[in-house]
Amino acid sequence: MRLKFIVAYDGSSFAGWQSQRGGGSIQDALEVAVLAVAGQPVRVHGSGRTDAGVHAAGQCCHIDVAKTRMTPENWIHALNTKLPHQIRILSAEIVDESFHARFSASSKMYRYHVYSGPVLPPMEYQRAWLVREPLDVGRVKRAASLFVGFHDFSGFSANRGGPAIDAHRMIRKVTVTTRGRSLFFTVVGDGFLYKMVRMIAAALVDCGRGVLEPEKIQAILDGSEKKSNQVAPAGGLTLVKVSYGPPARQSGKRDNETPADTNSGGCD
Predict the structure, then answer these.
(1) Counting C-beta atoms within 10 Å of the first and last residue's C-beta, which end of the chain has fewer, N or C?
(2) How would residue 255 be classed by pLDDT, with cut points 50, 70 and 90?
(3) 227 falls in which pLDDT band (50, 70, 90)?
(4) What is the dihedral of CA 207, 211, 214, 217, to 10 degrees?
(5) Could you report the per-residue pLDDT of 191-217, keeping only the tens digit for each?
(6) What is the dihedral of CA 60, 63, 68, 73, to 10 degrees?
(7) How many helices (H) and strands (E) does the chain have?
(8) Environment class of residue 205 by beta-carbon count within 10 Å: exposed (0-12), middle (13-18) or buried (19+)?
(9) What pairing do the DSSP bridges indicate for beta strands 149-152 and 237-244?
């Protein structure tokens, strides 16, 4: 039986999603919880990685377990009693074996939070990037539109140390919204590279500060300018949701899910 979960977590005290040799990742914590409930080791397959310190409101993962009388709602309750308080299962459903949390995804939505002001409110600690300089929101919005479309994002990604991969990705939407002193950059794409969203966020902030011309973003995407090396702090980034195509068969969902993102497994 294959179960699909939507998971939310505060990533501040974790080593990212991906299982680590020394433990301390979101995946490790989930596998410990599933072991306690299922009574045997079970691999948790995620839709993609999030880096250390990055949060999620709608990460997707799946597991394969023996058939049981437990309902999706039973699984939600049982796993949440075993998980650290920073990680919670929000929804569960039984899906067909053709579903895969990573390979069936169609798009992902990330949101980056910038707080523009002299002092970061305590409730935004490890939730937002404090930028003390005033930001020109008009320049930020103009720059954001340049990322939309199919581009080579090698100039806005970091190398994990492995062989080079195709860095072309489709970005469907980049929006900039404000609420008081907060700016939110929402990025929807078919796939993401390592630190890509955080490097996009850093470029947008530099445009808002006036230290980077929006037109230079296009030049970096075209390869005619040197790649960006600025990376926004991890704490401002949240994986909002992962979207999929056909709906799953049987549901214990608590809220509506929308499609997610197919990628190479890299992500923030």
Answers:
(1) N
(2) very low
(3) confident
(4) -100
(5) 999 999 999 999 999 999 999 999 999
(6) -20
(7) 5, 11
(8) buried
(9) unpaired
Note whether 22 and 82 are within 8 A (CB). Answer: no
Whether CATH 3.30.70.660 fits 105-238:
yes
Tell me which architecture the domain covering 2-102 has in CATH.
2-Layer Sandwich (3.30)
What is the sign, positive or negative, of the torsion defined by CA atoms of 10, 240, 137, 216?
Answer: positive
Among all chains, which residue has been given the structure tokens 């808002």?
Answer: 208
Domain locations along the chain: 2-102, 105-238
Cβ contacts of residue 189 below 8 Å, gap of 6+? 107, 108, 169, 170, 171, 172, 261
Q: Distance between terminal CA atoms of the chain?
A: 30
Show which residues are catalytic: 51
Count of Cβ atoms closer than 10 Å to residue 48 Cβ: 26
Euclidean distance between CA atoms 255 and 92, whole angstroms: 10
State the DSSP H helix or E strand holding residue 244, giving kind and residue range, or none if neither. Answer: strand 237-244
Longest dimension (CA), the chain: 60
Residue 2 has, within 13 A of its CA and on its CB side, a CA count of 13
CB contact at 8 A, 109 and 241: yes
Measured CA distances, 267 to 3, 51, 156, 191 (Å): 23, 8, 12, 8
